[in-house]
Amino acid sequence: MGPRPSGGVGGTRVGVKCIHAHLGWWLAGGDDPVGSWAAQRLGLDRANYIVTSAPVRGEKLAAIDIGTNSTNLLLVDEFGEETDRRVTVTRLGRNLAATGELSEEAIATTLDTLAQYKTLIRQSGSQRILVTATEACRRARNAEQFITRARDILGVTPEIVTGDREAHLSFLGATAHLDPIDGDTLVIDIGGGSTEMIVGNASGVRFSVSYPIGAVTLTESHFTSDLPRPEDLTNAIGEATDHIDDLVRDHPEVLDVTRVVGVAGTIVTVAAVEIGLQSFDAGALHGFALTREAAEDVFRTLATERLSDRVANPGLAPERADIIVGGCCVLVAVMRRLKLDELTVSTHNLLDGLVADARSGISS
Question: What does pTM read for this prediction?
Fold first, then answer.
């Protein structure tokens, strides 16, 4: 901070007339006894007002994640602030486990959504588009044909990310908008086709695993009736538990993390049902403490209802009603096996990580 500017402030040709101008100069770090006197009278601490680093200007970015169940869009301005976020259930991975391929119907639905997103991106003035594709495209025999058609619409080639890359981006996004802590954080990302478990801290990801179980895959492999049978629920939870057993065996330190964060559709939906939200409210959901007791209660409610009744639950989007029980099986299996009393919900996810990763080199 240099000397006070010459010339007048507050209505005089020279010097400063208004006390608030003295105060503002002192709060900004200037040497001003009048400003210091005013701050003392008001009980203001200059440390709370000095801005040590300005936001870094970069490109307007658009990020798209093509998932097994939904295709999602995030738009940010040149400072990385969110300007729009969209979630569209496209069910790209429908029947993938049975056929090994993406169906033409699912491809058409997803491509139509991408075309709509491209219009929004064009209107936003975004300068760069980042696109990832996850589990469905990792597994499908005809993924490359889909990727080519998606590229023709978007003008960029979607990246089929590895499970490790997906885990890294999910961790980065999930924790970017939470208070930093000492110790490790476990991020649980239950998607449509896979579940990522990531442990890391302020220094980065320590380890991650990706399992081919998700809301869509467990639903298609275990539930054949409108009302889930008890034995089917047991088998679905058992399959998920087997994977978590592997996690604990290979990484026992997962039991000693300081914080657990849950992201993506299943966990956000369970929290929304627990709260009873009539419409999506990121402010009410982000940072919400979802207890194991509450998760079990929501699971019991949804798993014992027919689809026609399940859709009436506040907080449950109709397009998720047919797969939410499969997602809940993963969630309760994780919370039971890891003996989690609660987890913190984050409404930020892989898309936020994709943007943060792209912006990390702006000031370098």
Answer: 0.73
Q: Are 233 and 219 in contact (CB under 8 A)?
A: no
Q: pLDDT tens-digit profile of 65-106?
A: 999 888 999 999 888 888 999 989 898 988 888 899 999 999
Residues 326 and 185 both lie in one domain: yes
Same domain membership, residue 247 and residue 188: yes
Residues 145, 92, single domain; the answer is yes
Provide the residue range defining the domain that includes 119. Answer: 61-163
Q: How many CB atoms lie within 10 A of CB 188?
A: 24
Look at the chain and report how many structural domains it folds into: 3
d(CA 354, CA 131): 9
Cβ distance 223 to 324 under 8 Å? no
DSSP letter, residue 12: -
Asked whether 266 and 330 are in contact (CB, 8 A), the reply is: yes
The answer to whether position 174 is within a domain reads: no
Instruction: Name the nearest CA neighbour of 163 among 133, 143, 140.
Output: 133
Residue 172 in domain: no
Indicate if 201 and 153 belong to the same structural domain.
Answer: no
Place of tokens 């976020």: 85
C-beta of residue 255 within 8 angstroms of C-beta of residue 338: yes
172-226, pLDDT tens digit by residue?
Answer: 888 888 888 889 999 998 988 889 899 998 888 889 988 888 898 899 888 888 8
Residue 80 domain-assigned? yes
Q: How far apart are CA 175 and CA 240, in angstroms?
A: 24
CA 257 – CA 24 distance, rounded (Å):
44
Domain-located, residue 173: no
Residue found by looking up tokens 């400072």 in the block: 79
- Residue 193 CA: distances (Å) to CA of 136, 218, 325, 350: 6, 8, 14, 15
Rg of the chain in Å (alpha carbons): 24
Cα 7 to Cα 62: distance, rounded to the nearest angstrom: 45
Shared domain check, 278 and 187: yes
Same domain as 119, residue 18: no
At residue 49 the predicted structure's pLDDT band, cuts being 50, 70 and 90, is low
